[in-house]
Design brief:
Layout: H1 14-38, H2 58-61, H3 69-87, H4 91-112, H5 123-140, H6 143-156, H7 172-188
Length: about 190
Amino acid sequence: MSIPAPSRHRSQPLWLTAAVVILGFVAGLYLIEGIDTALGNRLDGYGVIPREPEGFDGILFAPLLHVGWVHLLANTVPLLVLGYLILLSGIARWAAVTAVVWLIGGFGTWLTGADNSIHLGASVLVFGWLVYLLLRGIFTRRLGQVLIGVVVMFFYGGALWGVLPVQEGISWQAHLFGAVGGGLAARWFANRDI
């Protein structure tokens, strides 16, 4: 008779997996921006173009594209911090939350964005992840998640002004609908095992 030998290989800790995934995701954004720069920023045309059939594909591509390095740098730290905090709940949850934010943010932008404009950038994810983290504890009624929401509000709460049309050239529509997606994800996934 034989039995399976106990595994000597332990899986890596969740905090390390979360760090690797979010660093890989952000590194991918830098790779895409490098390719876009080498192509003379031609990829920027694949953002969301409101109410235009050819701009509907931008829902899938816009969060991966940025209007230059400064735009990407502005999104980097919030993406790393907020994405990491969500990833501490698992890759599947992060992927589900990200999918909801990505699609609702993109579709809302496509419906409401200004005519003759192109919307792109990962800030749709930043706003969605931010609102998800702010509301998650309220819906789950878990003290630890409420405390994370309070800390996140302290450091990033001022960014919520970005959902208002206060600055020319900033896609407040993507910010607003990304935030809506984050709120819906917080509600939908509150007590579900993912």
